[in-house]
C-alpha cells in the first residue's frame, strides 16, 4: 500500500507543479500588417519610443511590466539581427489593451429519453480577461508605419507569472518580422 501511495505522489506532484507553473495565453491569435513598398532588408537598428498607450482597464500594467515588454521585444529583435541605437532606422512602439469579457454557455442534458425523458438546460457565465499586444514599427526617416503586429488571447495565470505571458505574446508577433514578401 505504501508503495502505491509513493508511486502516485511521484506521478501526480510533478504534473500538478507543471500545471500550476504554466502561465500563458489561451487561444493566442496573431495578425500582421505591413507596407508592401518598404524595404525591410535596409533596416538594421531601432529605438523605443517613450510613450506607451495602455487601456484604462488594464490592471496588470506597471512600470515593471513596461520594462518586461521592452526587454522581451529587445531580445526578439536582437535575434532578428536588429541593434538598438540612438540613431535608428526604425522606431518601436507598443500598446497594451485588455478587457474583462464574459461568455454565456448553455449545456443541454437529456435524461431517460427512452421513456419520454426530460431535457435540462444548464447556463453559466464564464468571465475572463482578454489581452491584446500591438507592436508598431515606424520608419525613422519617413515617420511612416511600416509594420504592425498584433496578438490577442485570453490571459491566464497570476501577476507574478506575467513574464512568461509577455514573452509568449512578443515571440508570436516578432516571429513574423520581417514579412515574407
What would you note in describing this structure?
Helices cover 28% and strands 40% of the residues. With 181 residues, it is of the alpha/beta class. Strand 6 (118-139) and strand 7 (145-155) form a beta hairpin. The protein starts with a helix and ends in a 7-residue tail after the last helix.
Spatial extent as radius of gyration: 23 Å
Mean pLDDT: 78
- Residue ranges: pLDDT <50 for 5 or more in a row? 1-23, 54-60
Distinct helical segment count:
3
Pattern of helices and strands: HEEEHEEEEH
Name the structural class: alpha/beta
Q: Could you describe the largest sheet, including whether it forms a barrel?
A: 7 strands, mixed
Oligomer: single chain
Cα distance spanning the termini: 64 Å
The helicity comes to 25-40%
Principal-axis shape equals elongated
Strand residue percentage: 35-45%
Counted beta strands: 7
Amino acid at each position: 500500500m505504501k508503495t502505491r501511495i509513493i508511486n502516485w505522489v511521484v506521478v501526480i506532484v510533478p504534473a500538478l507543479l507543471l500545471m500550476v507553473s504554466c502561465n500563458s495565453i489561451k487561444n493566442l491569435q496573431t495578425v500582421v500588417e505591413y507596407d508592401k513598398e518598404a524595404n525591410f532588408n535596409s533596416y538594421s537598428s531601432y529605438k523605443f519610443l517613450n510613450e506607451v498607450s495602455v487601456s484604462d482597464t488594464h490592471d496588470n500594467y506597471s512600470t515593471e511590466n513596461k520594462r518586461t515588454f521592452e526587454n522581451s521585444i529587445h531580445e526578439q529583435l536582437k535575434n532578428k539581427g536588429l541593434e538598438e541605437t540612438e540613431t535608428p532606422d526604425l522606431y518601436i512602439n507598443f500598446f497594451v489593451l485588455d478587457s474583462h469579457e464574459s461568455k454565456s454557455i448553455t449545456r443541454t442534458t437529456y435524461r431517460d429519453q427512452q421513456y419520454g425523458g426530460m431535457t435540462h438546460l444548464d447556463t453559466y457565465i464564464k468571465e475572463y480577461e482578454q489581452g491584446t499586444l500591438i507592436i508598431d514599427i515606424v520608419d525613422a526617416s519617413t515617420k511612416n508605419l511600416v509594420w504592425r503586429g498584433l496578438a490577442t488571447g485570453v490571459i491566464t495565470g497570476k501577476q507574478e507569472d506575467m513574464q512568461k505571458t509577455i514573452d509568449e505574446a512578443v515571440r508570436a508577433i516578432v516571429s513574423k518580422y520581417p514579412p515574407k514578401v
